[in-house]
Design goal:
With 363 residues, the protein is an all-alpha fold. α10 runs antiparallel to α11 and α12 packs antiparallel against α13. Helices cover 75% and strands 0% of the residues. Pfam families: TPR_12 (PF13424), TPR_7 (PF13176).
Length: 363
């Protein structure tokens, strides 16, 4: 069973102590500033064993068997809805299934349904609900002495805690998963846990340790043949190198992530890698390459029909042209972003953009 991290999380980092890092901070479109649900994410439910293949508690009552079949159908439907982008409908289906599984006391199926619900809640940004169902999922895995699912549920909870801005608690939770994975000599679990710990360590400001953890994680990822996991870790490694100002290794790892993500049609990780590459190339003055990469970002955003990703393109382009000193083009991109922010009814971004436009030099 292959699992990727749920999210990478936003970071709140003070980069002003190093001149090279100031350039990174000014751009603000590096992939530390965006969610990896994406990414990041290969959600647990995407690769979980089909519910009908799970070992259910035997039911002798025909009525209960019919209930189980209905709950199984709802879980399958929820997964289809999730894959189609309807996370809200996934939650409706999952909660209905969960109620039935509770009524027939099928603990194993409840755990699987919590995985589905967690993915949907995270996609909708409902972190509190995601944390709740993940803690329930961990409880079931512990009661069942299901160490494999403990590893993945603890990792998912850790990344949720990281997203909440609780890196210390996240690190402790993910380290618990790493201990279990090491005791079981579980290569997949070690790779996932070390990769997520690299994110936590970077959030805490220890970028050199983050690099070491991600490098070690990469070896485990490659042993299992988990390509999506490898892409996630390459992106993590790119971020860590970016924070220490090692642009050669930043570009190398982000470049590898971008190529692998493209081959495997992993658009979220491809976008994440592109954003990191834009930041790195711009930091060393390779503006033409940065602009080429931004055009690739726009192509993907249009392919995905994603106004949110298109909005990020306008913002990133505006910031890059502002850095170059071409304020006319910067203003044009900011105005396009402003128009899109209004369509998206994003009041906060609208206010930020109005301020940016007003503060630009007139020349």
């Amino acid at each position: 069973m292959k699992h990727g991290n749920f999210l990478s999380g936003h970071t709140i980092l003070n980069l002003n102590s190093h001149p090279a890092r100031q350039q990174v901070n000014k751009l603000k479109y590096g992939s530390f500033y965006i969610l990896l649900f994406a990414c990041l994410l290969s959600p647990t439910v995407a690769s979980a064993i089909d519910i009908t293949k799970q070992i259910h508690r035997p039911l002798n009552n025909p009525a209960e068997r019919l209930l189980r079949e209905e709950a199984d159908r709802l879980v399958r439907l929820g997964r289809q809805q999730y894959a189609s982008g309807y996370a809200d409908k996934t939650i409706q289906s999952g909660l209905q299934a969960l109620e039935i599984y509770h009524s027939i006391r099928d603990i194993t199926a409840q755990g699987i349904t919590y995985d589905l619900l967690a993915s949907a809640y995270i996609k909708l940004g409902n972190i509190k609900e995601a944390e709740d169902v993940l803690r329930r999922r961990i409880g079931i895995a512990r009661d069942n002495k299901d160490f494999q699912n403990q590893i993945f549920a603890l990792n998912n909870l850790g990344t949720v805690l990281l997203q909440k801005g609780e890196p210390k608690a996240a690190g402790e939770t993910i380290n618990d998963a790493l201990v279990i994975a090491r005791n079981l000599e579980n290569i997949e679990g070690q790779g996932l846990s070390l990769s997520n710990l690299s994110l936590v360590t970077a959030r805490l400001g220890d970028y050199n340790q983050a690099v070491k953890l991600a490098e070690t994680a990469l070896g485990f990822r490659r042993q299992t043949g988990d390509v999506i996991g490898e892409v996630n870790t390459l992106n993590n490694l790119g971020e860590a190198y970016l924070m220490v100002g090692d642009y050669q290794n930043t570009i190398g790892n982000y470049g590898a992530a971008m190529r692998l993500a493209k081959i495997n049609f992993d658009r979220p990780n491809q976008l994440r890698a592109i954003d990191g590459l834009v930041t790195a190339h711009a930091a060393v003055g390779r503006y033409e390459r940065a602009l080429e990469l931004l055009e690739q970002r726009l192509t993907i955003a249009k392919f995905l029909n994603s106004p949110t990703e298109e909005f990020k393109y306008f913002i990133s382009s505006g910031e890059l042209y502002e850095k170059i000193g071409n304020y006319g083009k910067a203003r044009n991109f900011y105005q396009q972003a402003l128009s899109l922010a209004r369509k998206l009814e994003d009041v906060k971004q609208e206010a930020k953009l109005l301020y940016k436009i007003n503060e630009l030099p007139k020349r």
